[in-house]
């Protein structure tokens, strides 16, 4: 399964959506809701099947990408942290409990770097 991890991730999204569909069934939603959510689950699972078939048909074409700058790995956690800080204005300061550690991780990744050491 390690070789087809991307297909497992997409299938996991579909399974999670299936669980949420079951939660909707517990709360007895309208039939239209079941059809719409079930269609989304089916679409995600078909996408997982397409990813699996794609990864099996050409496994030698996988490319390993390198981050061009060593500190660039800190950008995604910094963006999410800043988004959470902005959401503090709407939802309250309790989001700082999540935002501050994310910003600390972003600073650590920017300072330390994320790529392998040069030999």
Explain this structure to me?
The protein is mainly α and 119 residues long. The chain has four helices and no strands. It has helices spanning 5-26, 31-57, 75-91, 96-112. α1 (5-26) runs antiparallel to α2 and α3 (75-91) packs antiparallel against α4 (96-112). It is flat.
Structural class: mainly alpha
| Helix proportion | 55-70%
Q: Please count the helical segments.
A: 4
- What Rg do the Cα atoms give? 20 Å
Shape: flat
Low-pLDDT ranges? none
Beta strands, count: 0
Which terms would index this structure?
119 residues, mainly alpha, 70% helix
Give the gist of this structure.
The protein has 119 residues and is an all-alpha fold. Helices cover 70% and strands 0% of the residues. It contains four helices and no strands.
